[in-house]
Amino acid sequence: MSTGRGDQSRNDATAMAREHFDKLVDEVGKMQSELSAMGAKVSKLASESLSHARAGAAEGVHEAEEAVRRNPLAALAIAVGLGLLLGAFMRR
Q1: Integer CA distances (angstroms), 21 to 1, 27, 29, 34, 75, in order
Q2: 34 contact partners, CB below 8 Å, separation of at least 6
Q3: Residue 12 and residue 23: Cα distance in Å, rounded?
Q4: pLDDT for position 92
Q5: Which DSSP state fits 83?
Q6: Could you say which DSSP state residue 92 is in?
Q7: What CA–CA distance (Å, rounded) separates 67 from 69?
Q8: For 61-87, what is the mean pLDDT?
């Protein structure tokens, strides 16, 4: 035989557990939304950084090309010197 008091306690515990579960579900949903927003921000920042890096690299290449055009013999001497150094390091 069940007592009314036992059933009520069980119902109260079930209701309390359900309430806690619902709160957890809400919190997880909020966290998912926040993480999604953070991911979008990180993606945007990474994209902007990559664009800046590409622009900087392109500018550096352009400046190097201009330096070679202004001083072709110096550029050739530097390239030969670097080649010799690299060859010396590769042999070891």
Answers
A1: 30, 10, 12, 20, 71
A2: none
A3: 17
A4: 82
A5: H
A6: -
A7: 5
A8: 95
Altogether, the residues listed in the chain come to a count of 92
Render pLDDT for 12-51 as a digit per residue (tens, 0 to 9).
899 999 999 999 999 999 999 999 999 999 999 999 999 9
Instruction: Output the pLDDT for position 4.
Output: 67
Q: Measured between alpha carbons, how far is 19 from 50 in angstroms, rounded to an integer?
A: 46
> Which pair of structure tokens corresponds to residue 12?
């109260």
**DSSP secondary structure string for all residues of 30-74:** HHHHHHHHHHHHHHHHHHHHHHHHHHHHHHHHHHHHHHHHH-HHH
**pTM score, whole prediction:** 0.53
The whole-angstrom separation of Cα 33 and Cα 28 is: 9
To the nearest whole number, what is the mean pLDDT of the chain? Answer: 92
